Every structure is written in C-alpha cells, then in structure tokens.
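2024-03-11 09:14:02 DEBUG pipeline.ingest accepted 1 chain
2024-03-11 09:14:02 DEBUG pipeline.ingest length=403
2024-03-11 09:14:03 DEBUG pipeline.predict start
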Amino acid sequence: MIPHIRIEEYDYPLPDGRIAKYPLARRDASKLLEFRDGKITEHHFRDIPLLLPENALMVFNDTKVVPARLHFCRPTGAHIEIFCLEPVRPSEYSQAFSATDCCRWKCIVGNVKRWKSDVLTLYNPENAADVADLDLKAALVGRDGGTATVEFVWSGGEPFSRVLEICGSVPIPPYLNRETEDIDRERYQTLYAHYRGSVAAPTAGLHFTQEVLDEIRAKGIDMETVCLHVGAGTFLPVKSSDVAEHTMHREPFAVSRDLVRKLKDGGRPVVAVGTTSVRTLESMYFAGAGCLERGHPDEISQWEPYDREYGYTFAETMDALLGYMEANGMDTFVTGTRIIIVPGYRFRAVDALVTNFHQPQSTLLLLVSAFIGGQWKPVYDYALSHDFRFLSYGDSSLLFRSN
C-alpha cells in the first residue's frame, strides 16, 4: 500500500550560511555525527575506522561524475545551457562515452523555448584551440516533458568522454549558488570513482582519504563496490504535498557476482556509504524476489516495496539472484531502479549508513528518517546547534539502523 506522507513534516530551517559552499582543505577533516542506539556523539571523520562494527562489509558507490554541463550559443547570440542526463543512442554508457563523432543524450536544456531548429555551436569565448578543433555542435531532436533529446556531433575522432572533459564543466549542485571552479574537478569526485555516468556526486564518499580507506582495510573490514549512476533528480526537494504524488527518476545500477555471493553468505553487518548505495542494496532484494517468483528480475519500480508483504529472507533473495547470474554466465548484474525509501519501509540489507546532511523536504531526508526510526529531527537539531556543515560539501554522519 502506497504510504501517504505529508512532506511539510520533513521540513527544517536551513540558513544559507550553514550550507558548505566549498570543501575543507582535507577530505577527512570534516565532522562526523554518530547516531547509535538513540544516542548522538560527535567525532571527526578520520576517526570513522574506530567506530565501524567489527567484521563489517562496507559498500561504496564507485560511479564517476562527468563534466556534463555544456554551454552553447545560437546564431543570434543567445546562450543555451545543455545538461546531459543519460545516453539515448548508444544507450549504454560505455558505448556512448566511446562514440567518436556523434551521439544522442537525454538532457535538461536551459532556455529551451528559445531553441527552435537551428544547430548550436559550443560557446568558446576564449577561443581555446582544443575546443575549436572539436567543432562541437548540438541539434534538438525532440522534447519530452522537462527534458530534450539532443544530438551532438564533433570532429577530430575524440571519444565523447574526452569531448566532455575538454568542453564541459562539473555540474555542482545549484544550492551552492556559485559557478563551477577548478577545485570542483577534483573535490566533487570520490577518490575511488571509476565508472563514468553520474551527473551528481555520491557525496557521502567525498570524505574518504586514502589513509582512512587503508585504516578501514587494516581493521579487517571487507570493502566492496556497487555502481549506481546518480541522476539529476536525486537531490531535488519533493514538490507535491503528499509524497505519494512524487515521481522518482530511474537510475541504472550494476553489482558484481562476488558482492551478491558475500551478501548471500551474510553473518556480518553491512555498512552502506551513501544513500545511493542503500538504494542499490535494497533494490537487490526485490530483484532477487523477482528471480524467486518469475525466474528473472525486472527493474525495480518506485512503490514495489509497498505493494504487498514479502516473506523472503535477504539471504534467500541473494541466493536466487546469484543462481540467475550463474545460469546466465553473468559476472555483473545490471538493471535500473526507481525505488523510494520512506518511513514505513522495512530494510533488508543495510545495518549502518554513512551520509551527509540533506536538504529539507527531500527524498534523502525521508530515507534517513526511515532508517533511524523517525528520529531525524533530534539528529538534525543537534547538527544545526553544533555547527555542522550541510549538504554536498558539508559534514558527515554515521547512522545505525533503528528498525
């Protein structure tokens, strides 16, 4: 049954001055709020190896942010901003990034009403030679609601990934209220980012330094990865008063057979780094349920967890998913999810969560509330009254599940 939740109940005052506009000099110098058994304690992020459960399985999202924001101009001189969301042709990310002369992407287009049928030329006010050599052009193929399909054509034989590196800028969140700067190319990216595809960073991972990762590994904690490409809608506030009317965007994710096997074996706490890792791990339960019931998994819909009761254990669903992968010779399982996690959701996979402090009235705040048994307000009141920095470049928290 779809839960009806009033989003105004998940509001709180967030002054602009509490939003971290820039990262700290050191990634692991951020503050860390720990919430465990109803108690709040305060630490620095570099102390997190000491706080993690023994023999835990820690899961990171190794997606990589692409410089997906491009600025073009019409023959009239009008500027058009194009924000690449996901590939259309080729539709597979690696193939789209490998294309050497032409590809199509689903995009958000600024001033789209001013763009009719003319072909746009990349804005190059400094006449940079490497930009000019690419001669990047954009043509409007079609529109669908708030997005558009855009065809990009360029010269020189460079892969589209390189075209974006040369021509694009990192799409930092709009609530930072500033333009992208050189520091964002390095710091709006995790150290372990690997697979290109996200247009927003999985920001919980921004705090990890190599030293912290080495200390976690030295403690005997097993470290695995998933890959969920973060879409532009992840950090948007819910605009409908009833959460039941909010539409979640689809995000593709991939998990390895080794991770599925480790989850099947169980017996140790699972620590998710970021809400994107939570959404991936919890989505895997319903993929495995599909294998049990239909013999194959389907993409996970937004309200699937609430449609009915599921009696399977997490280990049973992982065993079924592993069997499906082995029967089909799959080392990696790839699908998409629209799952929304709100109060009333029953967690199957995750025991602890590393996450930043999220926007008021956001789906991410709803997830946090669901995870810690509705006690988000005392946690956020503490953070606000103890000078924690908020949002993408802000401080961190380590939350232990309350249900």
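2024-03-11 09:14:41 DEBUG pipeline.report The longest helix spans residues 275-294.
2024-03-11 09:14:41 DEBUG pipeline.predict end
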